[in-house]
Each structure stands twice: as C-alpha cells, then as structure tokens.
C-alpha cells in the first residue's frame, strides 16, 4: 500500500510537471568543478544556497543522473560524486582506495561519453585522462576548500558556464546506457503496478533522514539468503528481489516521490526520531500546508499566509465534509490524504506508521482531539496545545535529550489522526513528569482530560472531565485534589515567605497514598487558618468544610494510576479557579 500510494503521488507530480524523469534523481551538491575545453580544472564553484528561513547555507538541490546504491565496495556515479571518485583524494586515511575510486569513475565516464562529440563531453573525458590525484593538495582552486570537499561533499562538472548533466547529448548517452542495462534484467509481474517489466534487484536509498546512514537508507531491501528461496537462486545474483517483485519503473517512481518528500525540509516534520512526511493524492501543496499548520502549528516559509481564524474555519468546514477555498485554492474534503512515519534502523528505514483517509475525515479526528484537550488556563484563549507542545509535556526540559520517547510519540500521532485511543504510555509519561516536578501545567492537565475522555478503559466519570472546575462533583480523587489545592492556598496565604510548601513535601504522597497524608495536612491547616484575618479564615473554613462533606467513604490507602491523574486534574481545576478575578462580593472563587 505504501509503494502504491507513493507511485500514485509520483504520477500526480508528473501531471503537474513537478517531478524528475526516470533515470534521474535530485541530489544536494556543494561544489562544481569548472573545466576548460582541454579538461583542465580552472576553478571550484561553491553551490551552497541559504534557505528561506535564513539558517546556515545548504548544498544546492540539483537534478543529476540516478545515483547507485553505495555499499562497502567501490561504485561510481555518473557526473555527480564525492572527491574520492572525482579527485582521487579524501580524508578517510586510505589513499590507495581513493585512487581506485578515481579509476572506477574514469572508466565509467570514458565508457559513457566516448560516443558524445560535444565540448562538455570531450572536456570531462580529457579531465579524467590528465588529472593526477597528487595534484589536489597543491591546486590553487582546491586548496581553500580541500578539507570540506574531502569530507564527502558532492561535486559536479561545469564547462563553459553550464553544468555537464544539462548537455542534451550527455543526457541521451545516459538514458541509452540505462535502457541497455534494463534489457538484461529479469522480467516479472510487478506487485505494485500489476504490469510486466524488468524487476528491480536493488531498491532506492534515501538520504536526509536524521539518524540514518549518510549514504542513504532503503525502505525496501533484501537480505541473503532469503531472496534465493523458491528457485530464485542465480549465480549472477540477479535473483535478488524476485520473491517480491517490484519493477524498476515502480521502484524509480516511489523512490523519486519519497525523495521529494524527504528533501522538502519546509514540510518534513520530526516526532522524536520519526521523520513524518504527508501528501495529498492529487499532489496539491495547499493540503500539506493546511495540515502542517493545523497539526504541527508550523507554517512553511513558502506557503501563503493563512490566519489562525481562517485556518480554524477551514478545518471546521472540511471536517464537516464541506469544500472550502483556502488562500485561493479549492480544497476537497474527499481527497485522499496520506501520512508516513519513518524511523532510522541501521541501513534501512522502519515504518513507524502509515495512515490514509479522506482529508476531511483526518481533519475531523484532529479537531476532535483538540476539543478533548480544551481546558481552562492561561493559554485557553490561544487554543489547545499543538502536537509539539503536547509531547514536550512528557519530557524533562532540563535534560540534554529533550525528545519524547519515539514509540510513544508515534503512537500519539497515530491516535490523533485515526481517532483511536491514546497510548497508555502518554498517561504514564505525563504522570511521571508531574511526580518529578510536582507541577500540573495546563498542557499536562489537558493530556489527562483528553486521555480519560477517549480511553474508556479507565472508567473516569465525565463529570470531572470538564473544561473548568466542577464544584458539584463528589468523585473522591477529584475532591481530594481540590482539597489539597485549598490547603496549599491556606498555607501560602498564612505564610507568604515560605521556601517550601506542603506541595513540595506531600504532593506526590497525597496523590498516591491519601489515607495517611490528609489527616496530617488538615491538622496543619488549623494552625495556618489561625494566622489569617477573620474574613479569610471563615471563607477558607467554609470551603474546606464543603469539600470534606463531599467525602462519603474511608480514604483509600492507595489510589490507582488513573485516580492519581484525576487527583491532579482536580488540583489543577481548583488552582486555576483561584487565579480568576474576585467576584463582586470580594470573595475568592472556588
């Protein structure tokens, strides 16, 4: 399903003229070797560009002949390679191997360009004929950049101010070479397209995923000897891949489509270690822009400016099945939408999740998620926390690694976009942070509310899962959380200069083991109440009395995990009530 969806995306991009043809790929290139007509190296041209976000310069994305999949052996690419192959030098500490790489590149270019009678082709052949790797360290054009290019930067050739890969005769030579190679491939029925064709032995490798190999990681690969079963063993190794045949055409299409998604840094999102890419079936970028802003709270620099109010209205209409016009582009809620999460796994990419639905249905799930998160607090006016802020609530912000747990983060994304239950680990991690920091932030309270509303296995009554305080609830954990907030308030009102309050000493134990803790806290409160002015004392005594009257059972020795979450929710609701303005009579709201 993933490969089929990516091939369909490639077809949509091709109809829009936004995709590379078969046999070519987009690679990030740092420098161009400028040659004269005799093949002499004249200068090194830096090709790095500064992105729209103003961050550090990045290598330029260029269309070059399709790259081979690199292994530990030596395999040269045509017209785009690193210094080992084009200069015969690198910083890997093995000059002999670098020399062999150069000879491999020389043989490939002489083979493909010997029949091309253009200045560009002749210059490249002349370069390989006359260049000596020993020249690199002394060449004035290379000296300022030698260290950088020796670390693996990609290089291309330029002749007469034009890149060699753009020469028509050179392109024809490459296409003929590729077609001749495909004629020797084993044929079969492609599982992706359903058509017969040459079967791909090796599948594309994808660069640019954080944590994966810099040389590229495969989404599909075959590991010996599994690919040799069912009679597919062949002496020349061409049986590799025949057990699950994918045509070279389909392999190129899904590879080009996924490469374009990964290379689009404005829309590539990371959740923990998972790279998340997303696309609409018809390849209209407006769907991606709106989705990114709605789910991740970020906007690509190149996308049209859409106000939060317009986006919220558009999402509401699309979630209800009504088409909208956003920034001048019509959006259809029935258009298919896909979200793919990829994580690095040695030389491969692991699929964390692959989600597909209509655009409107997926946004409806997102909208329901945000509605469950809605809670009173200082950020209530700006809406529920975005995915980033939500996951950050589960992480110690003082730690060196501030990434959320990858499996949990991926499961949260899946739950939000599919409308399924949240992972229990989200609740566990949130409670862990609350216990560690003794702080129920608005985001953590929102998570507790959302999890208990969606995950019915916790059996939390909805009366306590409100946006604001429910002062009529008699649910014991909720009442105890409220009572703790009031007792803390009494202490801080009576002793404003305290360095440590009951929250610092007893918050976790009160939530986990209320029976031995609350009698101690209520006894302490009596001494605190005596320090208050008469009006405040009568007021708080009444509030405490009301809460204690709502306790109709013996305090438990231990609260279950879910009930501890409800305790924290009651504490948060009551605390937020204290922050509201005083009522007309001058009393604090509770």
Descriptive terms for the model:
about 600 residues, alpha+beta, 4 domains, five-stranded mixed beta sheet, four-stranded antiparallel beta sheet, 19 helices, about 40% helix, elongated
The N- and C-terminal alpha carbons lie at a distance of 54 Å
Number of helices: 19
Total domain count = 4
Which shape, going by the Cα principal axes? elongated
Residue ranges: pLDDT <50 for 5 or more in a row?
A: 581-586
Number of strands: 17
In round numbers, the mean pLDDT is 89
* Fraction in beta strands: 5-15%
Radius of gyration: 32 Å
Q: Major β-sheet, in short?
A: 5 strands, mixed
Structural class by helix and strand composition: alpha+beta
Question: What share of residues is helical?
Answer: 40-55%
Note down, in words, how this protein is organized.
- The chain has 4 domains: 13-179, no CATH class; 185-259, no CATH class; 264-458, no CATH class; 470-590, no CATH class.
- Helix content is 42%, strand content 13%.
- It has helices at residues 2-15, 83-86, 95-113, 119-130, 146-149, 168-183, 248-263, 285-295, 308-319, 359-373, 387-392, 406-418, 424-437, 442-454, 476-494, 502-512, 514-529, 534-549, 561-579; strands at residues 24-29, 31-35, 41-46, 60-65, 80-81, 155-159, 162-163, 187-189, 196-198, 205-206, 217-218, 269-271, 274-280, 324-326, 329-331, 336-345, 348-358.
- The strands form 6 sheets. Strands 2, 3, 5, 6 and 7 form a 5-stranded mixed beta sheet that branches. The chain has a 4-stranded antiparallel beta sheet with strand order 12-13-16-17, with helices on both faces. Strands 1-4 form a two-stranded antiparallel ribbon.
- Helix 3 (95-113) packs antiparallel against helix 4 (119-130), helix 15 packs parallel to helix 17 (514-529) and helix 15 (476-494) packs across helix 19.
- The longest helix has 19 residues, at 95-113.
- The chain is elongated, with a radius of gyration of 32 Å.
- It starts with a helix and ends in an 11-residue tail after the last helix.
């Amino acid at each position: 399903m993933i490969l089929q969806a990516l091939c369909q995306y490639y077809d949509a991009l091709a109809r829009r003229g936004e995709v590379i043809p078969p046999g070519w790929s987009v690679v990030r290139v740092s420098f161009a070797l400028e040659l004269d007509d005799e093949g002499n190296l004249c200068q090194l041209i830096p090709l790095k560009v500064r992105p729209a976000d103003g961050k550090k310069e990045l290598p330029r994305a260029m269309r070059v002949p399709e790259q081979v999949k690199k292994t530990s052996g030596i395999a040269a690419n045509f017209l785009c390679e690193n210094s080992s192959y084009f200069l015969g030098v690198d910083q890997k500490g093995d000059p002999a191997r670098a020399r062999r790489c150069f000879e491999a590149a020389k043989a490939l270019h002489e083979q493909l360009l010997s029949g091309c009678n253009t200045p560009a082709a002749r210059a490249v052949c002349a370069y390989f004929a006359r260049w000596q790797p020993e020249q690199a360290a002394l060449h004035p054009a290379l000296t300022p950049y030698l260290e950088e290019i020796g670390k693996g930067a990609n290089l291309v050739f330029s002749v007469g101010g034009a890149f060699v890969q753009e020469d028509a005769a050179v392109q024809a030579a490459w296409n003929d070479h590729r077609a001749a190679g495909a004629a020797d491939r084993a044929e079969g029925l492609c599982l992706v397209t359903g058509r017969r064709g040459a079967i791909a032995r090796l599948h594309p490798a994808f660069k640019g995923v954080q944590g994966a190999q810099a040389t590229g990681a495969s989404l599909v690969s075959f590991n010996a000897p599994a690919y040799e079963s069912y009679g597919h063993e062949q002496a020349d190794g061409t049986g590799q891949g025949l057990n699950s045949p994918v045509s070279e055409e389909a392999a190129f299409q899904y590879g080009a489509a996924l490469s374009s998604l990964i290379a689009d840094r404005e829309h590539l999102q990371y959740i923990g270690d998972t790279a998340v890419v997303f696309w609409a079936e018809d390849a209209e970028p407006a769907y991606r822009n709106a989705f990114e802003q709605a789910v991740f709270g970020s906007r690509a620099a190149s996308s049209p400016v859409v106000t939060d109010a317009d986006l919220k209205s558009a999402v509401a209409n699309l979630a209800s099945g009504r088409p909208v016009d956003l920034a001048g582009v019509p959006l259809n809620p029935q258009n298919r939408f896909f979200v793919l999460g990829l994580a690095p796994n040695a030389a491969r990419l692991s699929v964390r999740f692959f989600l597909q639905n209509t655009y409107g249905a997926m946004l409806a799930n997102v909208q329901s998620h945000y509605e469950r998160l809605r809670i009173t607090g200082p950020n209530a006016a700006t809406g529920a926390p975005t995915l980033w802020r939500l996951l950050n609530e589960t992480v110690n912000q003082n730690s060196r690694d501030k990434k959320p747990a990858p499996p949990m983060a991926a499961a949260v994304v899946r739950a939000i976009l599919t409308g399924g239950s949240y992972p229990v680990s989200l609740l566990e991690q949130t409670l862990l942070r609350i216990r560690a920091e003794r702080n129920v932030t608005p985001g953590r309270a929102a998570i507790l509310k959302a999890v208990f509303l969606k995950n019915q296995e916790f059996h939390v009554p909805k009366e306590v899962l409100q946006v604001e305080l429910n002062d009529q609830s008699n649910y014991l954990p909720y009442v105890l959380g409220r009572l703790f907030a009031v007792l803390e308030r009494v202490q801080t009102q009576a002793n404003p200069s305290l360095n440590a309050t009951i929250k610092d000493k007893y918050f976790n134990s009160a939530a986990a083991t209320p029976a031995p803790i609350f009698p101690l806290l209520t006894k302490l409160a009596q001494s605190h109440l005596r320090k208050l002015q008469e009006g405040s004392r009568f007021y708080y005594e009444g509030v405490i009395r009301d809460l204690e009257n709502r306790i109709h059972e013996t305090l438990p020795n231990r609260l279950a995990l879910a009930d501890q979450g409800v305790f924290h929710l009651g504490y948060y609701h009551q605390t937020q009530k204290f922050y509201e303005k005083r009522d007309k009579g001058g009393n604090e709201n509770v």
